[in-house]
Design a protein that fits this description.
The protein has 232 residues and is an alpha/beta fold. It has one domain: 3-Layer(aba) Sandwich (Glutaconate Coenzyme A-transferase). The protein has six helices and 13 strands. The strands form three sheets. A seven-stranded parallel beta sheet has the order 4-3-2-1-8-11-13. The protein is globular, with a radius of gyration of 18 Å.
């Protein structure tokens, strides 16, 4: 990787520098738009004691669920436990610290981290266990709790297209948490389906400008369907 060219040739190079104890922000929602190959590289490296922020923790045996198998995650900010039995088991057994966070709050915590905003007030969670121990302020007769921004040592992101300068487009609902995560990583790594030449993408369609991106890699993806319902 040199100058404005953000491309790397291998997943090993893409995740170079990740170490035990780091914080990783991961895009995706369920299995939609997850950086599956970057996650697999983290598992291969065997780094542990990670703090992860993601909407959920994949499913058993795929996505972030791979990191649970080797007990590589010690703490996670997530919106739901979902359908991952191992995630549920580790949470109930106090093997992993789970900070349940409303989806909108989680997205805003990442966005705030990327914007350099250290904290913000939100009404979401006030009067519930989500707000326990957090600072409360009243604005316009309504109570709000203080939520701190999230910043990661690494942000791992799944895009659709990118150019070598790191400008990224996402496809439909696969956008989800990816743009927010991309802005909030000290090192942001994006894997995409296609790398195109600068100028081939309409500037108005670029979701993440290259200034936020440190490394780009083109990969191939399994694109699992999380739930499939068919006629008998």
């Amino acid at each position: 990787m040199a100058g404005f060219d953000k491309r790397v040739a291998s997943y090993e190079e893409a995740m170079e520098g990740i170490e035990d104890g780091m914080t990783v922000l991961a895009g995706g929602f369920g299995l939609c738009g997850i950086p599956e190959n970057l996650i697999a590289e983290i598992q291969r490296r065997g780094v542990k004691d990670l703090t992860v922020a993601s909407n959920n923790c994949g499913v058993d045996g795929f996505g972030l669920g791979l990191l649970l198998e080797k007990r590589q995650i010690s703490k996670i900010y997530a919106s739901y436990v979902g359908e991952n039995a191992l995630f549920e088991q580790q949470m109930l057994n106090d093997e992993i610290e789970v900070v349940l966070t409303p989806q909108g709050t989680l997205a805003e915590r990442m966005r705030a981290g990327g914007a350099g905003i250290p904290a913000f007030y939100t009404a979401t969670g006030y009067g519930t266990p989500i707000g326990d121990g957090k600072e409360v302020r009243e604005f316009g007769g309504r109570h709000y709790i203080l939520e701190e921004a999230l910043v990661g040592d690494f942000a791992i992101v799944k895009g659709w297209k990118a150019d070598r300068y790191g400008n990224v487009m996402y496809r439909h609902t696969a956008q989800n948490f990816n743009p927010m995560a991309a802005t909030a990583g000290r090192i942001t790594v994006v894997e995409v389906e296609e790398i195109v030449e600068p100028g081939e993408m309409d500037p108005s369609q670029i979701h993440t400008p290259g200034i936020y991106v440190d490394r780009i890699i083109q990969g191939s993806f399994e694109k699992r369907i999380e739930k499939r319902t068919v006629r008998s």
